[in-house]
Amino acid sequence: MKIIAFDIGDRRIGVAVSDPFASYAMPAETYFRTGKFSEDVTALARIAKEKEASLIVCGLPLNADGTESVQSEKTRRFVQALSDMVGGNVVLQDERFTTREARGDLEIMGVSAKKDKKKKHVDSLAAAYILENYLQTIKRSETMKEERNDYDEENNIVEIVDDEGKSYRYEHLLTFEYKGEWYVALTPEQQEEAGDEEDESDEVAIYHLVGGEEDEQLETIEDDALLEEVFAEFCAQYEDFEDADEAAALEPDGDGE
How far is residue 174's CA from residue 144's CA, in Å, rounded to a whole number? Predict the structure, then answer.
């Protein structure tokens, strides 16, 4: 599957494409906007068709804290128009810091910031970073899905040790992405004892997954508003992965986790 990515700006739109196997991203070109909304949308649809792309990835500009801005809304309107024109198969990808990374790499390569040529290159390179991030996201999602499919009741247990050295055992429910960040949902391990009745609902603890593959760690979510957002996203994804009734019975841990 060949994928195309657009870094949508007010004046220029960077273009990047993947290889036919969607393994890596390559900068392609920069489209200079005409100032006419419909013409620009039509032009991008034509570029996607010429590149024989089966999926379009568009960068979504966000504030540093992940919240949306006026530019986010402008981009969403443009992307919706593009999606309507091509009949779907358009997705959004967090583009935070991609332009900064592109400019930094161009400086390293000796491309002068004063040359107009840089403006042409920085957008296509930023689009390549957007596409590369998307490819990494879907690869990681596929890996997580494969790992979940391999779980059984004996190896689906996560043991967490607190600051006082006390150990707690949790059952892993789901590892999922929300706004470019990864989270893990756990529920206390069920301890079956004679005479105990099964609770109507189970608590779920959600942690922020940070660090690289070699040093991943779980951090508690201190922001209550963010916790509610992440929990809602977990419920939505868990309903797709598991039974909807089971997902509806879960409750967030009251300790802010």
Answer: 9
CA distance readout (Å), 172 to 144, 205, 230: 12, 10, 16
Angle (deg, nearest 10), helices 70-86 and 37-50: 60
Measured CA angle at 99 (ends 89, 21), to 5 deg: 40
Domain ranges, ordered by start, for the chain:
3-148, 151-252
CA atoms within 13 A on the CB side of 129: 21
H/E element holding 85?
Answer: helix 70-86
Burial class (CB in 10 A: 0-12, 13-18, 19+), 235: middle
183-205 tens-digit pLDDT: 988 888 765 444 444 444 468 88
Retrieve residue 80's tokens.
């919706």
Angle at 193 between CA 191 and CA 196, to 5 degrees: 100
Q: Which one has a higher pLDDT value, 192 or 66?
A: 66
pLDDT digits (tens, 9 = 90+) for 3-18: 999 999 999 999 999 9
Listed residue (217, 144, 147, 137) closest to 178, CA to CA = 137
Under 8 Å between Cβ of 15 and 47: yes
Fold of 3-148: Nucleotidyltransferase; domain 5 (3.30.420)
Assigned token pair, 172: 């892993």
Task: Enter the DSSP assignment of 205.
Answer: E
Token pair, residue 119, equals: 């403006």
Torsion of CA 188, 236, 249, 205, to 10 degrees: 20
Please give the structure tokens belonging to residue 247.
């997902």
User: What tokens does 49 get?
Assistant: 């068709």
